[in-house]
Sequence to fold (149 residues):
Amino acid sequence: MTLGPLEYLVIGFKADRFDGGIAKELEKIVAAGIIRIVDIVFVSKNAGGTSTIVEVDNKDDIRFAPFRRLLADSQALFTHDDLEQLADRMPAGTAGLVLLFEHRWAESIKDAMAERGGFLVARSVIPSDVLEDLSAELEEREREPVPVG
Fold:
């Protein structure tokens, strides 16, 4: 089995705002073959700073029901230590959906690179604050008059 690049992200919520509604959007990109969910875990930290880690396949919690269809290919690769470290970085009174996913769109690119002796030199994710600044700059450029002549 060829794995595309794996990436994780933590989507944070105020602890009382998580209802599983994001599952619908995740289903769209999974169905389109863009990503494959490898692992999903719910982490919360109460106001006192105590963390709770719950596997999303927990049958007793209705908040996780929308995610069950996404778990068909899951492999539960997060370790308890991984999740504790992520929980430590979360503010008190918040919850996080921890997603590990495979970039399916990159599988054939990865195979083609390997067949030709290619290798990845660099990869980075541009932070959201940088993207926000860039978006504001681009919007400002669009408002500026275009010089004539």
